[in-house]
Write a structure and sequence with these properties.
CATH class of the largest domain: Alpha Beta
Order of helices and strands: HHHHHHEEHHEHEHEHEHEHHH
Helix content: 55-70%
CATH superfamily of the largest domain: Glucose-6-phosphate isomerase like protein, domain 1
Structural class: alpha/beta
CATH topology of the largest domain: Rossmann fold
Domain HTH rpiR-type: 6-83
Oligomer: single chain
Shape: elongated
InterPro entries: Homeodomain-like_sf, HTH_RpiR, RpiR-like, RpiR-like_SIS, SIS_dom, SIS_dom_sf, WH-like_DNA-bd_sf
Largest sheet: 5 strands, parallel
Strand content: 5-15%
Pfam family, one: SIS
Keywords: DNA-binding, Transcription, Transcription regulation
Number of strands: 7
Distance between the termini: 65 Å
Radius of gyration: 22 Å
Number of domains: 2
Domain SIS: 128-285
Strand order of the largest sheet: 4-3-5-6-7
């Protein structure tokens, strides 16, 4: 069915067409969530939460007259009266910025707590700490927003004098990975675990005998399957917010986790960090 009128609301469009059961689940979920979650939701989030495939989501978008999920989300957010505020005060049908900030920070906190439980209950972080403390070379691989996670880990651990490298450009990542040797440690970060450039660098490192560590939200991904050690992010529909967005924020916390674990294992490493502070001296004040 072709929608000729731009005035039809999302709900009016859903009534005007015949929906498959999977499409109905997507509609029900979209109408039930808060503007915050709707604003950051990705197709993978919606697929996991509704139990519908990405192809079903794409088909629903086109059936309702939207080019894709992005436009469908935008239409929902723009509709008057959409202010689904979960008990918060709104102005003009829009959630207040302070309430949005509170909702986002609570979502990050919930995911951080879940990540803490995962790390506390499993042995991966202890194993990784041992590998990092006793290796010739450490390389970090990641693209896009995952590169920001790599950079956070690099900036923190380089302060301990560790032999660690990171370059954002993916050809340089492959160059570094091709120079790795047995028992070196390669840490690859990819939420999906399917980023081609990251897989390329990770596989090259592993082919050269390096230990491969993956940080990913998908235990069944190509990256996780290739890794000698997999650290899983707390993704899941039971947690608030977009996993694809917020789990990257939580992943940055690994930089401080690893820093503290390494100092606990080898207190003498802290002397390097203190030396760096001395070098900056009054420039920090």
């Amino acid at each position: 069915m072709q929608f000729s009128s731009e005035t039809l609301t999302f709900e009016e469009r859903t009534v005007a067409v015949s929906l498959f059961p999977a499409e109905k689940r997507v509609v029900e979920h979209l109408l039930a969530i808060s503007p915050f979650e709707l604003g950051v939701m990705t197709s993978s989030d919606l697929s996991e939460r509704s139990g519908a495939s990405r192809s079903s989501i794409d088909r629903l978008s086109r059936k309702l007259g939207y080019p894709g999920l992005k436009e469908m989300r935008k239409a929902l957010l723009m509709e008057a009266g959409r202010g689904h505020d979960g008990g918060k005060s709104t102005e003009g049908g829009e959630e207040k910025p302070g309430d949005i900030a509170d909702r986002i920070m609570q979502a990050i906190a919930a995911r951080a707590q879940a990540m803490g439980r995962i790390l506390a209950e499993r042995d991966e972080i202890a194993t990784l700490t041992s590998w990092l403390a006793d290796t010739r070379n450490i390389c970090l691989f990641g693209a896009g927003e995952s590169a920001a996670v790599c950079n956070a880990i690099y900036m923190r651990l380089v302060r301990l004098g560790l032999p660690i490298s990171f370059a954002e450009e993916h050809h340089t990542q492959v160059t570094l990975s091709s120079l790795m040797k047995p028992d070196d440690v390669a840490v690859a970060v990819s939420y999906s675990g399917e980023t081609k450039s990251t897989l390329w660098a990770a596989q090259t490192a592993r082919d050269n005998g390096a230990r491969l560590v993956s940080v990913t939200g998908s235990p069944s991904s190509a990256l996780a399957k290739r890794a000698d050690l997999a650290i899983l992010l707390p993704t899941g529909s039971s947690l608030p917010g977009s996993a694809e967005v917020l789990d990257r924020v939580v992943a940055m916390g690994l930089s401080e986790v690893l820093f503290q674990c390494l100092v606990s294992k080898q207190p003498e490493l802290m002397a390097y960090s203190m030396k760096i502070d001395d070098a900056f001296g009054e420039a920090r004040t």
